[in-house]
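Assess this:
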Amino acid sequence: MKKAVTALVVFAVAAVWATTAAAEDQKTFAGASAVEAVTVKATVGAIAPDTRVLLLKGEGGKVVSLQVPEAVKNFPQIRVGDLVVARYVEAIAFDLKKPGAAGPGASLTEAAAKAAPGEKPAGVIASQVKVTVVIQAIDTKKPSVTVQGPEGNLYDLKVKDPKKIEGLKVGDKVEVTYTQALAISVEAAPKAPASK
């Protein structure tokens, strides 16, 4: 399972890197990109096997109960003291397309994996959406950009760095790539230091 989780996390990171690199390589448009990664850890404090409920104690001491769905087949491998780790990565990148290079459209790529029977529970899901949009308006004072998606819907997008929209003009086509991945794993309790 660790190989499958690692492979999908690598897929997500590679997708994030590729979209960021593609955006940064543009000569006519300083491509915009943003990446956010969050890791949350909690220790299993108690297990109610009959109801499939875990009591988890977070890093700040807060205790929450978690109902584990039947889809998690490796529930019996969880032990008090195990560490539940959730990692979430989210990225968005923009890539200016040259005239005629792309028409409006969208694509979705998804992947998922779970632990093999008998291993500690773990799973990962990742998705990447690519949409080609057309710039309809640019507001350098807000700063924001209004774009039209492939279905004809209009969206106002805030821009953190006004320099990122310099050189853009109404009618430009921009490919927006949104990537997200979530990996959750249960890891064995850390070993106590040997006493002397």
